[in-house]
Amino acid sequence: MKIDFDGIQAFVVIAELGGFSKAAEHLHVTQTALTRRLQKLEAYLGLRLLDRTTRYVELTVVGREFLPQAQTIVGDVTRAVSRLKDVSSRSRGNFTLACIPTMASQMLPKAMRRYAETHPGNRIRIIDASGFEVRDAVLHGQAELGIGLPTESHVELEEALLLEEPYMFFCREEHPLSRKKQIVWSDLHEAELIGISTMSANRIFLDYQLAKRGIKLSGTYEVRHLSTAIGLVAAGVGVAILPNSTLEEGARPGLCRIPLTSPTIKRKIVILRKRNSTLSPAASAFFDLVLDQAGSS
Amino acid sequence: MKIDFDGIQAFVVIAELGGFSKAAEHLHVTQTALTRRLQKLEAYLGLRLLDRTTRYVELTVVGREFLPQAQTIVGDVTRAVSRLKDVSSRSRGNFTLACIPTMASQMLPKAMRRYAETHPGNRIRIIDASGFEVRDAVLHGQAELGIGLPTESHVELEEALLLEEPYMFFCREEHPLSRKKQIVWSDLHEAELIGISTMSANRIFLDYQLAKRGIKLSGTYEVRHLSTAIGLVAAGVGVAILPNSTLEEGARPGLCRIPLTSPTIKRKIVILRKRNSTLSPAASAFFDLVLDQAGSS
DNA sequence: AGAATTGATTCTATACTCGCATAAGTGGCG
DNA sequence: CGCCACTTATGCGAGTATAGAATCAATTCT
pLDDT tens-digit profile of A186-227? Predict the structure, then answer.
C-alpha cells in the first residue's frame, strides 16, 4: 500500500480550480501529469472522485465527501514541510542554552546581540546554573548547548574552548596589598580570604591547580556565588581570588583587581554540546557564532 | 517541490518503533528502503531528523518537534484513505433517495430489507415527495437516485423501468359496479369520481393517455394524494381511478379493486439518476439491487 | 577476541512518472 | 448539421527513482 500524496494534492487543486489545465499551471506541471495522477489515485482507491467531461469538472458524491479531508491533509503537510524548510534554510527556531552566571553576564550578552542581528525572531531560553548543572542540562537534553567549565572529557560531551581567563586578586583600595602591581600566592593572609563553596566546580578546579603546585588555600568565609564574594569584598569583609571576568572593568570604583602570579592560574571556559547529537540549525548557528567570536578575540 | 509522504511515514514509524529494521518489518519493506526514504526526506528538508548509530536511534531536537505533526499527518492520511477503500470495496456509505409516496410504502420496503442484508450499516435517507419533486431532487443533486414517474427524457436524467402498473377502479362493496369483473371507461359516472389534483404528475400522465384516446375525465372532488383518495373512497364519498399499487392487496376489506379496460392504461415507475454522474458505491449497489428486483418479478 | 546486531552502501533491475504530440469528446455557432 | 474552440485522455519514449540482494562497517555482548 503506497499512498500517493501527489494524487491527493492533484485532486484538491483540480477540484478547487475546477479544471485540469488551470490546476496544472498552478502546480507547475503539465496537464498530462495531473490527469495521470488523478487516474492513479482513483485506480488505487477504486472510485471516481471527479466526474469530468471535456467541458466540466465536478465532484462526485464521494469526492465531495473526501474533499475537506483532502484539503486539511494537503494543508497540514505543506505547512509542516515548509516550516521545516524554513527551520533548515534560515535557521529559524528556538533553542535552550545553559550557562554559568559569570558568563551569562559577561560574554553572553554580546553573543546574543550578534545572534539577534543575524537571526531575528529566534528565541534563546537560558538556564543560568552552576558548572555542574550546566553539564547535566546538556547531558540530559534540557539544553542543546552549554557554556561552562571543562568536564573530565565526558564520553558523551564535546567541548570547544571559548576563552581562558586568569584568577585575579580582588580587594578594596584601602587594603595594604592594593598598591602592588602583582601579587604572589604567598602574599596572601588566609584569615581574610573569602572562598567559594567547595561544592562549586570553580573551587574544585582551583584547589586542584594549586595542589599540583603545593599550595593550599582555605579561607575563613565561604560563599556559593562569585557575585556574592565580590559583594563581600566591596563591603570590606575581606579579599578574594576570583576569575577575571567576575567583575567587569571599572564596574565597582572602590575595588582593585591585581594579577596573581607564580604561578598564574587560568580557568578555561568552554562551550558544551552532546557528542553524536545533531544540533538544531538555530543552535548550530549560535554555536558557530560563539566559536567565531572566541577565535577572533 | 515534491513532497514525500513515504518519507514522513518512514520517519514516524522508525521513531515510534525505535529502529529501522523493526520499522521495515512493520511496513513490509526492506530496511534498505527505509534508510533511503529517510535519507531522501532529510536531504529534501536539509536537516537531520534522527540521530542514529548502529546501536541507537533517537530523535534530534528538530525531529522531536516534528514528530507529533508527522504523526497526525500520517494518521489522517491513512485513516482517510482506508475509509475510502472501504467505501469502494465494500460499498460502505450512506446516500439519499427520492421516492414517490406510493412506491415508498409498496416496493421500497422490500428493496430496503434486501439492501440492509447485503450492506449492513449503510443508511438510506429517503425524501418522499411528489413525482416532480423527485425529479428535481435528482436533478439538483439532493438525491443520488429517485424512484418516480418517467420524465420527458430530460437530457441530464437517465431512467430505467422498474415496473408498470395498470390504473384500477376502486369502490366500496356497496357500489353498483362492484360486482363487475372489469370495467370500461364509459361505465364511469363522473359525478362521483374522486380525482387527483391536476398539479400532480400522475394526473397529467393519466389525462394525457386518455386524451389520446378521446376520453376526458373530470371528477367532482379533487385531492392531492392518492392515499387521501383511497380514504375518501372507503368513507363512501365516491369512487376513484388509481394506480394498482396505491392499495396493498387485501389491506382494506370493504373496498373493491376492479380492472379498467378498453383501454387498459398503465403507468410506468422508473428509477432515476443523473446522467454522466458517478454514483457512490452505496447508491450504485442499491441501484443494481432495485433493477435486479424489477427484472426478476 | 569473536559473534551478533543494526544501520549504511553498492550494484542492478524494475517500475514509475513525466512531457510531447496527438487523439477524442463536448458545447457553441453559423 | 457540421465545423470550430476548448478541454481532457492516451500512446510512446526517456530519464529518474526506487526496491531488493549482498555486503560492509560500527558497536555491543559474551
Answer: 777 666 788 887 778 888 888 888 777 777 777 778 788 888
CATH (one of 3.30.710.10, 3.40.50.300, 1.20.120.140, 3.40.190.10) for B95-162+269-295: 3.40.190.10
Which DSSP symbol is given to B254? T
Separation in Å: D3 C1' and B139 CA: 31
pLDDT in tens, B125-159: 999 998 889 999 999 999 999 999 888 777 788 89
Q: What is the CATH number of domain A165-266?
A: 3.40.190.290
Strand C bases within 7 angstroms of protein beta carbons: 5-10, 17-21, 24-27
pLDDT at B62 over 80: yes
Q: Which alpha helices (DSSP H) does chain B contain, by range?
A: 5-17, 20-27, 31-45, 61-90, 101-105, 108-118, 131-139, 201-212, 226-234, 281-295
In the block, residue with C-alpha cell 536531504 = B43
B278 closest CB neighbour out of A45, A60, A278? A60
- Just give the CATH number of B164-267: 3.40.190.290
**Residue A141 corresponds to which cell in the numbers above?**
537534553
Report the b/e string of B220-238 with b at 16+ CB within 10 A. ebbbebbeebbebbbeebb
Which residue in B has a C-alpha nearest to residue A72's C-alpha?
B76
